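Sharing a chain and its predicted structure for anyone who wants a worked example. Both blocks are below, sequence first, tokens second.
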Amino acid sequence: MKLLDFVVRDSIIIDLKATSKEEAIREMVSALHAAGQLADGEVESVVRAILNREELGSTGIGMGVAVPHTRHPTLQRLIGTVALSQGGVDFAALDGDPVDIFFLLVSPHNQPGDHLRALENISRHLKDERFVSFLRQAKSSQDVVEVLEEADGAAV
């Protein structure tokens, strides 16, 4: 599974405005909605599902990175987005540092394998310092797409 199999290009956020965990999640879910991936009535329940998942433990994995995720009954396929924050967001990360790179993931309930494969793929790439560095240098959504394309190509 490649990153661009589920990252919705039109939902990528280069300059996340949020300053809190909930605002960040809302902004990313709203970007998926604006890209036509979530219906009007799904936005709030997806936000709630992700916040409920965060109550189990922060998905801020450290080193400025978070991977908020959930499964949701209304989805037909795995979707995700990438968001970059210039100022960083207090996301209750494991190391206590602000988060500036987000991968948000939402998948259907009936596809747990795809959900786990996507999370594994994201975490594998986020361990690559070059990948993370290039994401932090991205100035446009096209720059982000190019970083993801390169990572997808290297993973083949």
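Comments welcome. The radius of gyration is 14 Å.
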